[in-house]
Amino acid sequence: MNIAYISVPYWYGQGKRGTDLGPKAVEEAGLFETFERYGESIERFGEAAVLPERAVWEEDTSLKRLEGVLHTTNDLHHLVRDAVDQGKFPLLVGGDHSMAIGTIAGLKQATPRLGVIWFDAHADLNTPDSSPSGNIHGMPLAVAIGEGEERLVSVGGAGAKLLPEQIVYIGLRDVDPGEQQLIEERGIRVYGMNDIRERGMEAIMEEAVRYLEEVADHFYLSFDLDGLDPSIVQGIGTPVADGISLEDAQVVLKHCADHARFIAAEFVEVNPLLEEGNGTAIVTNGLIDNLLEYMQSHRLVK
Asked: What is the pLDDT of residues 63-99, one digit of tens each?
């Protein structure tokens, strides 16, 4: 393994302070000790730049804190691109989910056909016109397919970074009307909680990865902690009942890690201010440990 750890300590894409503390919380939960178990092939590659709060303002209520999001995602896309160009696997910890605008832009510069497994309770497919909140963490996939604010779409270069058919949702269960319309119009693949219950996560992930093989040269995992059931994680800003179990989340990680086309992973929306203790960060560190173990095992087998 050749892992580049990138932290993204910011909250400007959503309305609750605290996700800026997410990377530090995961580190305090034992992240660097986890890294040490996998040898010297993991390095702290960088930290995305974040504007001070005094420089961020809500100049448009349909695009809250736009300047802060643009600043961080532009910087992040360079970090991700440089990591991949150096033959490394970017492993990111955030930070709210709007950071994926930068992650996707950086990965797109390294691979012409990028796919994503989007582990999340939410579709994150709103535009400024459809968003009920104006929070940009609900928009990164709309931005990725070229919809919405042009300055966000242009992070890392003009135009869409993903085709709708290169997106696979896992665990989706809270979708706004405008998002549902886009999902249906664009034919985006969705595995909701009923699918997972009826078919099992093993079958879902086998099918999802096989599908991405047809539409993408490489894929990455974007893992929002609110995809898990709220009984497992309390330090999240937008919990949705009836979520994914920890065991099923580990199945997702294993199927990603087992594939040679898997090139990056991000873990987002850890908010230690929303819980007593550091439980969500501890869960996140455990999931990263699982992922690294699966990746190491895959490479040893190969």
From this structure: 999 999 999 999 999 999 999 999 999 999 999 999 9
List, for residues 20-40, the tens digit of each pLDDT value.
999 999 999 999 999 999 887
Tell me the pairing of strands 262-268 and 189-192: unpaired
DSSP 238: S
Which residues have a catalytic role annotated?
A: 97, 120, 122, 124, 137, 224, 226, 269
pTM: predicted TM-score of the whole model, two decimal places: 0.97
CATH number of the domain where residue 36 is located: 3.40.800.10
Phi, psi for residue 89 in degrees, rounded to 5: -100, 110
**Alpha-carbon separation of residue 55 from 14, 67, 282 (angstroms):** 16, 8, 32
**Residues in the chain, total:** 302
Q: CA dihedral in degrees (176, 75, 218, 126; nearest 10)?
A: 10
Interior angle at CA 161, CA 85 and CA 163, nearest 5: 130
Domain that holds residue 81: 3-301
The number of distinct structural domains making up the chain is: 1
